[in-house]
Amino acid sequence: MKHLMLAAIAESAQAPLAVRHIARPVPGKGQVLVRVHAAGVNPLDTKIATGAGAHARQPLPAVLGLDLAGTVIELGEAVEGFAPGQEVFGMAGGIGGAQGTMAEYIAVDARLIASKPHTLGMREAAALPLVFITAWEGLVDRANVRPGQRVLIHGGAGGVGQVAVQLAKARGAEVYATGSAASLDFIRSLGATAIDYQAQSVEAYVEQHTAGEGFDIVYDTVGGSTLDASFQAVKPYTGHVLSCLGWGQHSLAPLSFRSATYSGVFTLTPLLTGKGREHHGAILREAAALANAGQLTIRVDERPFELDEVNEAFRQVAEGRGKGKTVIQLVGE
């Protein structure tokens, strides 16, 4: 069994994932072999398992999972900056035909990972990569969030939302976030002004919090009608709307009449194309620095699912029942 490992495999669409032994990977040039301690479960993983998520280009059967935290075991050729025994985290596979993170070992492109923040456990670190990279690519890369700006995060208690709130705050912005009534206390605990989107109209909260001027940056992490609401909430001329789920058909008129800007955020591109992977590693180093400085945490669901409970973990994510990010734990902390 020395050269085998356990992995969670989506064998066909709609079927339960199977946990079984497969060959343990060998790191190629530019790769490191990582012993996976924890793997984050994202909504995209559950979509791929049902046969949806075509944009992820992950034909089945496949080992699923994008996010990991673990320990470097072995270095492939031409790898610098990592050493055996080093704790790392990253968004490392599970799409584009690559093996995912829900396995005991994974060979990953060294450009996609970074040293794990010492302030976070393996489960927290495994919950962070996809959502933090998504938040950073919107707020920093596209919108250059900075002091003096009013930033509105839609879905502030969600995976991307909670780290987007903290990132905008860390970069000096004044942060507001929408959520349901049940999530408002959590949003406040992150340091944002909480807005109950069901209790207040867009016009009402724009008037209350910006004296009717609109927000400098609006980040939609929800999609659908929330993106339309974002177009109404943004400040004329200099305002910038971002969405990581802007995949529907939308009227641009409200945005155009404000002469404002829109940017889409699609975080998977470097994994799918191989281009720009160094930037993901750089973003993760920024995440680790913020976490180590006490400016970034992530709420993880308290249940530590094990690999043989992967189907329960997927159900929890698909049904939105987790209190925070759902993580599969492969090695005890």
UniProtKB/TrEMBL annotation:
Residues 12-328 form the Enoyl reductase (ER) domain. Keywords: Oxidoreductase. Its EC number is 1.1.1.-. PROSITE patterns: QOR_ZETA_CRYSTAL (PS01162). GO terms for molecular function: oxidoreductase activity; zinc ion binding. Pfam families: ADH_N (PF08240), ADH_zinc_N_2 (PF13602). This is Zinc-containing alcohol dehydrogenase quinone oxidoreductase. The lineage of its organism: Bacteria, Pseudomonadati, Pseudomonadota, Gammaproteobacteria, Pseudomonadales.
